[in-house]
Automatic annotation (TrEMBL):
Protein name per Swiss-Prot or TrEMBL: RepA protein
Zinc keyword on record: no
Gene Ontology BP terms: proteolysis
Top-level taxon: Bacteria
Region: Disordered, residue numbers: 276-295, 302-323
Biased composition (Basic and acidic residues): 313-323
Example GO molecular function: serine-type endopeptidase activity
Biased composition (Polar residues): 278-295
Amino acid sequence: MLTNKQYAAVLVVDIDQPGERGGHPVNLAETTRAQLAGLVSRNVGPAWVGINRVSGKAQCLWLIDPVYADEGGESANMSLLAATTRKLGEYLDHDPNFSHRFSRSPFYTGHSPDRYIWYRQHHRIDRLGDLMKEVRTVAGDAQREPARQEYASGRELIEAVKARREEAQAFRAIAREIETEMGEDADRLNPDLIDGVNVRWVGDGRAARDETAFRHALKTAHRLRAAGQRMTDAAIIDAYEHAYAVAHREGGAGREPELPPMRDRQSMARRVRGYVSQGKTASYGSPTAKYATTSQRKALATMGRRGGQKSAQRWERDPEGEYAERRREALRQTHRRKRVMGQTTRAKIQALVGQAYVETGCTPSAREIAQEIGVTKRTVNLHLKALREAGALAVE
């Protein structure tokens, strides 16, 4: 048994290209012969080739390093087997709905007129990964490159994520300010508005040219959308270049113009248009901003978890040490602050109940007190109960 739901030792491809009668390799379709020759040239040809005596169609078998699956018939290796079968089948123009990993027996000795004539090529056992790589080479497909490690250490990863977060926060602040700057009245009252551009400054006589240009391009895109006009690359780039020129003229401070190349400006225009049209106000960022990959997020989570474990170890190793004492002092301050907050809330409730009774002759409900003070109804009930037990609530 070479294949079942949880085990496979062969790879089967059913070639659906009709050839000529006879059952000999020369009777295969010309394209099929050329494709098989390409596989043989890379030393990944099939171990067995079966040819139908009547139609000239064929089946090919590859002996593979056995792969296994769980009870449900699933595993990473089974997925690799399916992908390799699909890739080989696409290359050989197979019938994907016929064999379903089953094949005719190479050892059949009957006399059926449409039986397959089998030709053994070799006894080599192929690894699926190597087979997939060579098939991609023969088919001219791009190889899958392993993910490159961008950071040399976990600390470097954390610093990069911190820098990215700070950059995103800065551009998020820009996005939130854009709507405030959209009004014409605000523009007329803005002393930094020069030739329609709100120039941003980083010091005396020194303008933030890139930030000024980006803000103006973003504002222009918002206005185009509000007016029902197209947010074209040309319009956004023109706004960016105009704002940059104004900022450089007014606050160049002896610097040379450093306008980004046209390719970067086109990328900026596409991103700005996407931000405005999709409403991604929280996603403004520089054109070179990147996102953390899954492995990087896992690394950050792992390091955060290990940091907590190290903190717990310090507690256990030296419960009376400086670290533990600092943490206890922080907890004491937190508890003290919460206790004062609770006392203040109780005093507010007591005063509110007394004032309402003096003015109206009745006490407010717990819901009304909660809405007035800004706490939950449960908190109000707890404070009222404590006040009654202490005899501090003169009215009932």
